[in-house]
Amino acid sequence: MAIKITRPQGTEDITPKQIYKWHTVERMARETAENFGFHEMRIPTFESTDLFLRSVGETTDVVQKEMYTVKAKETEFTLRPEGTAGSIRSMLQNGLLNDALPQKIFYILSCFRHERPQAGRLREFHQFGVEMAGSAGPASDAEIIALAKAILDRAGLKNIALNINSIGCPTCRAEYHKALRAYFQPHRDELCETCQTRLEKNPMRILDCKSEICSGIAKDAPVILDYLCDECRTHFEKLQEYLKAQNIEYTINPKIVRGLDYYTKTVFEFITTDIGAQGTVCGGGRYDGLIEQMGGKPTPAMGFAMGLERLILTMESQGCEFQPPHQCDLYIAPMDEAAIPTAMQIASSLRTSGYQVEYDLMQRKLKAQMKYADKIGATFVLVLGENELQSQQANLKNMKTKEQFPVSLGEKFEEKFDDIAIQYMFHDVVNDFEKECGTHGSNE
Ligand code: ATP
Ligand code: MG
Asked: Is 134 helix (H, G, I), strand (E, B) or coil?
């Protein structure tokens, strides 16, 4: 008996019916990043496990609970749980940091984390991310946040709150860690097992724990903002000044510590309440120590990652527009086998000019072919029967307006089709414009 195999839990298929939404957000993000002078980078799906242990951090949820580590012929790899570690590894390996600074890159990639699947939380998900390496000043923090905001604005999102925080540098954090240990010590036995080990190694991670008991205890914990050194405090104040200069609204949220260890100074999230509990659409921050820690020269850096599933979910819930897919420009309906070579020739020449053209491959009767043309949203249909072949004359039918245009087959066909198609597209644009502006008939 055949066994039906289904996709693994926490993964999703993106079918041809949904792909236009992905193309829309990918295009928007890519074009906006390019407007800011960022360039695309592509990195491997798997990296050595050490890369993530050393960068993301051994006490993080991602490393402790969520990594997909695979062994192939005695060599161990990990499927990337995020994009920063791999992109920095790649920048170092390819000498990009010896080039003009700041280096500004972006990526669109899938990430893998073994989490409990739910709406907006998958085991394979997709991120659009950016990294900027080489600039230390708060203007670059503002630039990174402005880029994330520009993408969300371009998507048409409303009600998405920017939360910012500073988590200081190793200097101010030493004092803060002491205060946190003193605060959590009396609650030690109530903390989850993972957080008990974090108490010694990295108490700030307790603030990021998803367990209700731990987050309840952490509610009144000391906040890092009270422990910032002068440099970190000035940096944070300047950032706020630069955000205000660009009219970017924000809230200071001292609870944001971010789930990965490499962050320093500025951290931020864009949060919506429209898609349930998993509302962080974008998260990022500065990571001034990471590049040196990974074997490069000390180089300040900053970046963010946007979850594309959560971005699309939010756009859907807010009724934002996605660019509709390009549909069939011409469907050719051969009424019998004799018309097939002519259909092939017409299709081939129009496809070369960039039109989307199909013809019958199912040996269907005309009625069924018209039904198919309608289903695929064909703009024009050309029926080719014995009469048409003999006279080399046919009718091009516009399926939307029902207009018919007499056309000659042969050499002149393409030129004529171009004329008719352009007229129709123009007519469509004018129609849309009139609908939008409500000017239809106003001059009469
Ligand atoms: P969360 O707190 O929701 O677990 P995170 O801090 O682990 O998020 P990051 O590592 O900062 O997330 O990843 C950046 C973005 O990627 C998140 O803001 C979110 O939009 C998206 N993301 C993270 N994990 C998942 C997941 N399992 N499924 C879908 N999207 C995710
Ligand atoms: Mg997480």
From this structure: coil
Query: One-letter amino acid identity for 365?
Result: K
397 ligand 1 Cβ < 6 A: no
287 lines ligand 1 (CB under 6 A): no
Instruction: Tell me how far the alpha carbon of residue 208 lies from the centroid of ligand 2, in angstroms.
Output: 9
pTM: 0.92
Tell me the domain boundaries of the chain: 19-169+229-317, 330-434
Region of 120 (left: φ > 0; alpha: ψ -120 to 50; beta: rest) is left
Minimum-distance ligand 1 atom for the alpha carbon of 311: 20
Q: Which of 99, 117, 83, 109 is nearest to 304 (CA)?
A: 83
Give the pLDDT confidence of 143-186 residue by residue, as tens digits. 999 999 999 999 999 999 999 999 999 899 889 999 999 999 99
pLDDT in tens, 303-333: 999 999 999 999 999 999 999 999 999 999 9
CA distance 46 to 64: 18
Euclidean distance between CA atoms 190 and 188, whole angstroms:
6
Instruction: Identify which of 242, 282, 286 has the alpha carbon closest to the alpha carbon of residue 102.
Output: 286
Cβ neighbours of residue 391 closer than 8 Å, sequence gap 6 or more? none
Class in CATH terms, 330-434: alpha beta
Please give the single-letter amino acid code of residue 353: S
**What is the dihedral angle through the alpha carbons of 369, 371, 377, 379, rounded to the nearest 10 degrees?**
60
Joined tokens for residue 316: 């859907």
Confidence at 434, pLDDT banded by 50, 70, 90: confident
| Residue 404 · residue 396 · CB < 8 Å | yes
What type of residue is 257? V
Q: What are phi and psi of 71, to 5 degrees?
A: -115, 125
Correct CATH for 19-169+229-317 of 3.30.930.10, 3.40.640.10, 3.40.50.720, 3.60.21.10: 3.30.930.10
Cα–Cα nearest to 281, from 272, 268, 290: 272
| d(CA 382, ligand 2 centre) in Å | 54
Q: Which two tokens stand for residue 33?
A: 């990043």
> pLDDT tens digit string along 264-273?
999 999 999 9
Ligand 1 close to Cβ of residue 281 (< 6 A): yes
Rounded Cα distance, 76 and 41, in Å: 24
| CB neighbours of residue 179 within 10 Å | 16
First-to-last alpha carbon distance for the chain, in angstroms, is: 71
